[in-house]
C-alpha cells in the first residue's frame, strides 16, 4: 500500500467535526444571534410605543368624555334652565294669560330646540294643556282637556308655521287624569325639578324623558309645568360621534338601563317597548357590557379590558344636570388609537425580516460554499482514487501475458470492466455474419464471480438494437426495459438477470463497429468511459488477431449440406414447391418481385420453446401443433409455412401478378389457426401463449446459394407482420396492418387499436381481427 493511502481515523474524525462546526455551526449561530438582537429591539420598541399609545388614548378619551358631557348638558339645558324660566313666567303672569304664555313659550321652544318633544301644563283640579309639533305638518298642535267625567274631551287645534288656525278636532279622553301621572306626582311631592324614568312611545318609536316642576298660582292652585325631551336626538348625537374608527358611546342609568346609544330601536323592539327591560345585552354590546361590569366594580375612570381576541380601552364618567344619576360609557379598540404603533411595528418587522433574510442568505452562501468546497475535495479525492485504481487495473491488463493470444479467452477484460464501473455484469459481444448476429464472447457476473458466454442475438429479433449498435456511439439507458431501442435486448438478455440500466460502448474496427461492450447497472460507467474505450480498443485488437471476419463466419455457416439433403432443403416448408402450379392455378415463382404477398407471423412465448420440464411432452405438443397448423395452411391454399424457432411464418399469394384472394385466404387461415392453437394448448393445460400478426405488401424472392439452392423471401411485409405479432395487445389475438384492414374490412370484423410509430414506415394504424362478417 502506498504511504499516501494510509489514513488515521482519529484525525479524519476531528477534521470532519471541525469542518462541520465551521461550515454549519458558525452560519447558524450568526443567524440566530442576528434574529435574537432584532427580536429584542423590536420588543422594546413595541412596548415603548404601546405605552405611549395607551397614554395618548387615555387623554383622547378624557377629551371625548368632556365633550360628550358638555353636549349632554347642552342637550338637557332646555329641561333644566328652561323649566325654571317657564315656571317663573307662569307663576308671575296674569291668571287669564296663563294658557297664552304657555302656548307662546312652548311654541317658541318647539320651533328652535329640536330635542324638545312637547310641553305639559296641569293643575290640582285636573285641568291639562299640551303643546307639541304637528305630526302631519310643520306647524304646532295644542291640546286642551275640557269637560268633566264621562263628557270630558281632548280638543285639538292645529296651527301653521305662522300661527294661523288650520283645523280643530276632538276625541274622548278615556278617563285621562294628569294628576295620576308620574311627572305630576313626582314634582308635586318633591317640590323641585323632577326627572321621570324614560318611557317609549311605540307609535313613533320615540323614547321620552320628562322634567317637571311645581308652582302655586295666584288663586292658590298647584300647577305642574313639564317639558318632554326626546332621547332619539341624543342617540343620533352619540351615533354621529367618531371615537377612533369603531368606538361606541352609551348612556345608562345606575341600574344598567339603556338610555341612548346605538341600536336603540332594535333594543326597544326586543324589550317589547318596555324601558325596564332595555338593558345591556352581552350579545349586542359584548365590550360595552363588560365595560359596565368593570365600572360597577372599580367605579369611574379609564380601564383596559379584553373582549374576544381584541383589547379595548374604556372610560366610565358621570353626567351632570340629572336628578337620577346617568353614566357615560366609552369603549374603543386599542388598535384604533395605537394603529400607528402597529404600522410602525409592521415596518420594523419587515425591516427585521429583511435583515434576517439577508443574514440567512449570507449564512446559506457561506454554508453552500463550504459544502461545495467539501464536495469538490471529496470529488478530487474520489477521482484520485479512481485514477489510482484505473492505473493499477490498466497495468494488470497490460501485464496479462496472453492478452493478444487468439486461443486465450482473456477473462481479465470483463472482470476489469466490472471492477472499474461497479457493474453487476460486464459483457463483450462480437458482430457475426455480416452484422446479422451478435455473439457474446464473454460475460462476467460480478455478484457470483462467474463467467459465461456463447449467447447469440439475431438482427431479426432486435432490429432497433442492432441499428443502435451500428451508430457507433456510446450511450447510457437508465431503464432499458422502457426504451424502444433496447426493450428487446432487455427482454431477451437482461430481464432474467434482474438488471435495469444499460451502458453500451461500441468496439470499433477499420470499417465501423465490429462489436460492443455492455455494462448492466454500472453507476460509475460514465466516469470511467475512457477506460471502457481503452478496453474496447484491446478487444478490437484481439478480434483482428483472431483473423475472424463476419464474412468468413457467414461462409462457414452456409456451407453446402450433403447432396442427399439438397432436394429436401429446396422444398422445406413449402406446401407448393417453387416453380410448380399453385392451388389457385397460378404458376409458382422462381425469383423476382412479388407485389402483394400476404405474410402471417405467429410468435410463441418461452413457456413452450424454452421449457425443460418433460422434454418428450413438449416435443409431442409442438409436433401436434405443427401438424395441425400445416393442415390448416394446406386447406386454405397457403404458399408456405415455416417454423423458425419460436416463430411460425406463413406466406400466401407469392406471384408476380397481385393475387386478390391471398389476404382473404390468410385471414381465414389465421382464424382457424387461432382456434386450433387455443384448443391444443387448452388440452395441454397451458395458457394461450401466442400472438399473431398479418401484413400485405411487396417482397423479393429467389433461389440463393449454389448447391443446394434455397428459396428465400425478404421485404418490409415480413418485418411488419412480425412487428404486428410482437405488438399484439393480448395473447391469442390477431393484429393486422392498415393495408390488410383496407382489403378485408368489407368481409371481416375489426377493432381499431390506434396510431403507432413503426420504424422506416412512420405513423400507421393497426387493427385487431375479430372474426368474419
Automatic annotation (TrEMBL):
<dbReference type="GO" id="GO:0070482">
    <property type="term" value="P:response to oxygen levels"/>
</dbReference>
<dbReference type="InterPro" id="IPR029151">
    <property type="entry name" value="Sensor-like_sf"/>
</dbReference>
<dbReference type="Pfam" id="PF02743">
    <property type="entry name" value="dCache_1"/>
</dbReference>
<keyword id="KW-0812">Transmembrane</keyword>
<dbReference type="InterPro" id="IPR029016">
    <property type="entry name" value="GAF-like_dom_sf"/>
</dbReference>
<dbReference type="Pfam" id="PF01590">
    <property type="entry name" value="GAF"/>
</dbReference>
<feature type="domain" description="Guanylate cyclase">
    <location>
        <begin position="601"/>
        <end position="725"/>
    </location>
</feature>
<keyword id="KW-1003">Cell membrane</keyword>
<protein>
    <submittedName>
        <fullName>GAF domain-containing protein</fullName>
    </submittedName>
</protein>
<dbReference type="GO" id="GO:0004016">
    <property type="term" value="F:adenylate cyclase activity"/>
</dbReference>
<dbReference type="GO" id="GO:0019934">
    <property type="term" value="P:cGMP-mediated signaling"/>
</dbReference>
<dbReference type="InterPro" id="IPR001054">
    <property type="entry name" value="A/G_cyclase"/>
</dbReference>
<dbReference type="InterPro" id="IPR033479">
    <property type="entry name" value="dCache_1"/>
</dbReference>
<feature type="transmembrane region" description="Helical">
    <location>
        <begin position="20"/>
        <end position="43"/>
    </location>
</feature>
<dbReference type="GO" id="GO:0008074">
    <property type="term" value="C:guanylate cyclase complex, soluble"/>
</dbReference>
<keyword id="KW-1133">Transmembrane helix</keyword>
<dbReference type="InterPro" id="IPR029787">
    <property type="entry name" value="Nucleotide_cyclase"/>
</dbReference>
<dbReference type="GO" id="GO:0004383">
    <property type="term" value="F:guanylate cyclase activity"/>
</dbReference>
<keyword id="KW-0472">Membrane</keyword>
<dbReference type="InterPro" id="IPR003018">
    <property type="entry name" value="GAF"/>
</dbReference>
<feature type="transmembrane region" description="Helical">
    <location>
        <begin position="349"/>
        <end position="367"/>
    </location>
</feature>
<dbReference type="GO" id="GO:0005886">
    <property type="term" value="C:plasma membrane"/>
</dbReference>
<dbReference type="Pfam" id="PF00211">
    <property type="entry name" value="Guanylate_cyc"/>
</dbReference>
Amino acid at each position: 500500500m502506498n504511504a499516501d493511502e494510509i489514513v488515521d481515523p482519529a484525525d479524519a474524525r476531528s477534521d470532519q467535526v471541525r469542518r462541520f462546526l465551521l461550515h454549519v455551526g458558525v452560519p447558524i449561530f450568526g443567524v440566530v444571534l442576528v434574529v435574537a438582537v432584532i427580536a429584542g429591539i423590536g420588543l422594546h420598541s413595541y412596548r415603548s410605543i404601546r405605552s405611549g399609545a395607551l397614554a395618548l388614548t387615555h387623554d383622547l378619551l378624557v377629551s371625548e368624555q368632556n365633550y360628550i358631557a358638555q353636549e349632554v348638558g347642552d342637550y338637557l339645558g332646555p329641561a333644566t334652565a328652561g323649566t325654571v324660566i317657564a315656571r317663573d313666567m307662569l307663576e308671575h303672569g296674569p291668571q287669564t294669560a296663563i294658557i297664552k304664555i304657555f302656548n307662546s313659550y312652548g311654541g317658541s321652544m318647539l320651533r328652535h330646540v329640536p330635542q324638545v318633544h312637547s310641553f305639559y301644563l296641569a293643575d290640582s283640579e285636573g285641568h291639562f294643556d299640551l303643546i307639541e309639533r304637528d305630526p302631519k305638518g310643520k306647524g304646532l298642535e295644542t291640546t286642551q282637556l275640557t269637560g268633566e267625567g264621562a263628557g270630558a274631551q281632548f280638543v285639538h287645534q292645529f296651527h301653521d308655521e305662522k300661527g294661523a288656525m288650520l283645523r280643530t278636532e276632538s276625541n274622548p279622553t278615556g278617563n285621562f287624569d294628569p294628576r295620576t301621572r308620574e311627572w305630576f306626582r313626582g314634582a308635586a311631592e318633591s317640590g323641585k325639578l323632577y326627572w321621570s324614568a324614560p318611557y317609549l312611545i311605540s307609535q313613533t318609536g320615540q323614547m321620552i324623558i320628562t322634567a317637571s316642576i311645581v308652582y302655586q298660582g295666584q288663586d292658590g292652585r298647584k300647577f305642574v309645568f313639564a317639558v318632554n325631551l326626546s332621547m332619539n336626538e341624543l342617540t343620533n348625537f352619540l351615533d354621529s360621534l367618531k371615537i377612533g374608527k369603531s368606538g361606541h358611546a352609551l348612556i345608562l342609568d345606575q341600574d344598567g338601563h339603556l338610555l341612548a346609544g346605538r341600536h336603540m330601536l332594535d333594543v326597544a323592539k326586543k324589550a317589547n317597548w318596555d324601558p325596564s327591560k332595555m338593558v345591556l345585552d352581552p350579545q349586542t354590546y359584548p365590550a360595552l357590557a363588560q365595560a359596565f361590569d368593570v365600572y360597577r366594580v372599580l367605579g369611574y375612570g379609564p380601564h383596559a379590558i379584553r373582549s374576544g381576541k381584541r383589547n379595548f380601552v374604556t372610560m366610565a364618567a358621570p353626567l351632570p344636570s340629572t336628578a337620577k344619576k346617568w353614566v357615560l360609557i366609552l369603549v374603543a379598540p386599542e388598535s384604533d388609537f395605537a394603529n400607528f404603533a402597529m404600522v410602525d411595528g409592521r415596518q420594523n418587522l419587515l425591516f427585521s425580516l429583511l435583515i434576517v433574510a439577508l443574514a440567512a442568505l449570507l449564512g446559506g452562501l457561506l454554508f453552500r460554499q463550504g459544502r461545495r468546497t467539501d464536495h469538490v475535495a471529496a470529488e478530487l479525492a474520489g477521482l484520485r482514487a479512481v485514477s489510482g485504481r484505473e492505473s493499477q487495473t490498466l497495468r494488470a491488463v497490460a501485464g496479462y501475458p496472453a492478452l493478444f493470444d487468439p486461443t486465450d479467452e482473456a477473462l481479465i477484460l470483463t472482470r476489469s470492466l466490472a471492477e472499474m464501473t461497479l457493474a453487476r455484469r460486464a459483457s463483450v459481444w462480437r458482430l457475426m455474419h455480416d452484422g446479422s448476429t451478435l455473439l457474446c464472447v464473454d460475460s462476467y457476473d460480478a455478484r457470483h464471480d462467474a463467467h459465461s458466454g456463447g449467447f447469440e442475438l439475431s438482427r431479426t429479433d432486435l432490429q432497433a438494437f442492432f441499428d443502435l449498435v451500428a451508430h457507433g456511439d456510446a450511450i447510457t439507458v437508465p431503464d432499458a426495459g422502457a426504451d424502444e431501442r433496447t426493450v428487446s435486448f432487455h427482454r431477451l438478455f437482461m430481464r432474467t438477470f434482474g438488471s435495469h440500466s444499460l451502458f453500451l460502448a461500441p468496439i470499433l474496427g477499420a470499417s465501423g463497429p465490429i462489436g460492443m461492450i455492455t455494462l448492466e447497472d454500472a453507476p460509475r460507467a460514465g466516469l470511467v468511459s475512457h477506460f471502457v474505450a481503452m478496453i474496447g480498443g484491446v478487444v478490437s485488437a484481439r478480434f483482428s488477431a483472431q483473423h475472424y471476419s463476419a464474412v468468413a463466419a457467414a461462409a462457414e455457416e452456409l456451407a453446402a449440406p450433403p447432396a442427399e439433403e439438397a432436394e429436401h432443403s429446396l422444398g422445406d416448408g413449402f406446401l407448393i414447391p417453387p416453380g410448380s402450379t399453385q392451388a389457385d392455378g397460378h404458376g409458382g415463382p422462381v425469383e423476382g418481385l412479388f407485389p402483394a404477398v400476404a405474410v402471417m407471423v405467429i410468435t410463441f412465448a418461452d413457456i413452450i420453446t424454452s421449457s425443460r420440464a418433460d422434454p418428450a411432452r413438449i416435443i409431442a405438443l409442438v409436433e401436434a401443433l405443427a401438424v395441425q397448423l400445416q393442415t390448416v395452411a394446406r386447406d386454405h391454399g397457403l404458399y408456405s409455412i415455416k417454423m423458425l424457432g419460436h416463430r411460425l411464418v406463413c406466406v400466401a399469394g407469392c406471384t408476380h401478378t397481385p393475387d386478390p384472394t391471398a389476404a382473404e385466404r390468410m385471414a381465414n387461415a389465421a382464424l382457424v389457426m387461432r382456434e386450433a392453437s387455443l384448443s391444443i394448448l387448452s388440452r395441454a393445460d397451458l395458457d394461450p401463449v401466442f400472438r399473431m400478426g398479418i401484413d400485405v405488401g411487396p417482397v423479393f424472392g429467389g433461389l440463393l446459394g449454389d448447391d443446394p439452392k434455397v428459396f428465400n423471401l425478404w421485404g418490409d411485409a415480413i418485418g411488419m407482420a412480425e412487428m404486428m405479432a410482437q405488438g399484439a395487445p393480448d395473447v391469442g389475438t390477431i393484429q393486422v396492418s392498415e393495408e390488410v384492414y383496407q382489403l378485408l374490412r368489407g368481409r371481416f370484423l375489426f377493432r381499431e387499436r390506434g396510431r403507432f410509430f413503426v420504424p422506416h414506415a412512420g405513423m400507421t394504424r393497426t387493427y385487431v381481427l375479430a372474426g368474419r362478417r
